[in-house]
Design goal:
- By secondary structure, this protein is mainly beta.
- Among the domains are: 2-120 and 252-297, no CATH class; 170-201 and 319-368, no CATH class.
- Helices cover 7% and strands 40% of the residues.
- It is built from 2 helices and 26 strands.
- It has helices at 2-15, 252-265; strands spanning 36-43, 49-55, 66-67, 72-77, 82-84, 86-89, 92-95, 105-111, 117-120, 123-126, 131-139, 144-152, 160-172, 179-182, 189-192, 199-205, 210-213, 221-231, 240-249, 283-285, 293-294, 299-300, 302-309, 321-325, 343-347, 354-358.
- The strands form 5 sheets. Strands 1, 2, 3, 4, 5, 6, 7, 8, 9, 10, 20, 21 and 22 form a 13-stranded mixed beta sheet that branches. Strands 13, 16, 17, 19 and 23 form a 5-stranded antiparallel beta sheet that branches.
- A hairpin with a 6-residue loop joins strand 14 and strand 15 (189-192).
- The longest helix has 14 residues, at 2-15.
- It is globular.
Length: 379
């Protein structure tokens, strides 16, 4: 019991900012200058490496962060190996899976379009143990489902962990639409709907910095450590829900960096949001060591595990329907179905002169942010 309480308390310490801490507002984060933010790592395994480049903002800024486009990024090995990243989209650079020596040391080199060059320290590859399992626990007090991670390193060498996750769930609208209007609202026609807009799939990525450590334990074992809490009223658990957990072993230096960053970003949300304090990593400007650079470069193997659950927890929203005429007759324009802001469900009579209509958000699942295409991994 003491073991579980210790781990839960440690996890909570990393994710909850004490309300007694006074805000720290150094001049660097209130200046008009922007500094490079580097988020990513060298994936020494079977998956793609990703590096994102952004610029910091003043803490009073509300606009989206500035993207660092057109940079040249390479990962360099101590033995002279060079692995070049390519820009997939604005500010996102990728390196496809490569044969990388897991016994080597690597550093990151970045050249920006304004002729500045940044270089990280050489880092050794940290080898991540597999995820043993992802367990779930229904917490009635929180009215939520708690997802826990279980892992261990029999060699007792890992000790420091970081996790990310992607959650995907399917959901349905209250009503199923079999009809749609083709053409404009004044002279369009009602036809059978070909696509299903009743069932959607939506994916969210974790935004918190999730860390754990077994450094104070005799064995390198993580047991039932909460990594995600899904509330029942969110309706993510009503039909089917899946979570993909990604696990990374960290060096002590990387763990300390992410711990400090977790504390400072708790009130802002993510690495790219305005930071209330100065947390720098192992990346420097080659020609100006005094320039602030945010981010920590690591070389690590990645472990993944996905589970599906279908607990049937939640409830569909309440929606109402109405009956309207299909055609627009003189002096009855307000009853014309083609001019309604709702969506057509089905014909209300055999002669197809009236239709049942409902509000769009009760019919079209895409309005809640999802897509109708089933993910390739979906069971």
């Amino acid at each position: 019991m003491k073991y579980n309480l210790f781990k839960f308390s440690f996890f909570a310490l990393l994710l909850v900012l004490d309300s007694c801490i006074e805000p720290f507002s150094p001049p660097e984060v209130n200046s008009p200058d922007t500094y490079l933010v580097v988020d990513g790592f060298l994936n020494v395994g079977q998956d793609t490496s990703k590096i994102e480049l952004r610029r910091t903002q003043n803490t009073s800024e509300t606009a989206n962060p500035v993207i660092e486009k057109g940079a040249k990024i390479t990962a360099e090995g101590e033995a002279g190996e060079i692995y070049a990243f390519t820009e997939k989209s604005n500010g996102l650079y990728i390196l496809l899976p490569s044969q990388i020596n897991q016994s080597g040391k690597y550093r990151l080199r970045i050249k920006t379009t304004n002729a500045k060059e940044y270089l990280s320290e050489f880092v050794a590859v940290t080898k991540t143990p597999p995820i043993d399992s992802i367990s779930t626990r229904l917490d009635l007090g929180l009215n939520s489902m708690v997802f826990n991670i279980n892992t261990h390193d029999p060699s007792n060498n890992t000790r420091f962990y970081r996790w990310k996750f992607e959650e995907t769930w399917t959901y349905r609208t209250q009503f199923y639409s079999t009809l749609e209007v083709i053409g404009n609202v004044t002279n369009g026609s009602v036809v059978e709907r070909k696509d299903n807009i009743n069932t959607c799939y939506r994916t969210n990525k974790s935004s918190s910095i999730l860390l754990g450590s077994t450094i104070k334990l005799s064995q390198d074992i993580i047991k039932d450590l909460p990594i995600n809490i899904v509330s029942i009223p969110s309706n993510k658990l009503l039909f089917k829900y899946s979570i993909l957990v990604k696990q990374y072993a960290l060096s002590r230096e990387a763990f300390e960096y992410w711990t400090d960053l977790a504390k400072t970003t708790q009130g802002t949300g993510s690495l790219f949001d305005p930071l209330p304090s100065q947390v720098t990593g192992n990346i420097k400007n080659v020609n100006d060591a005094q320039e602030l650079v945010f981010g920590y470069f690591s070389a690590v193997t990645e472990q993944k595990k996905r589970i599906f659950i279908a607990p049937g927890l939640g409830a569909l929203s309440r929606c109402e329907t109405d009956t309207l005429l299909v055609a627009c007759y003189p002096r009855r324009e307000k009853e014309c179905a083609l001019e309604t802001s709702g969506l057509l469900l089905y014909y209300a009579d055999p002669r197809q002169q009236t239709v049942i209509v409902a509000e769009a958000n009760c019919v079209d699942c895409r309005l809640q942010g999802g897509v109708t295409t089933k993910p390739s991994f979906w069971e």
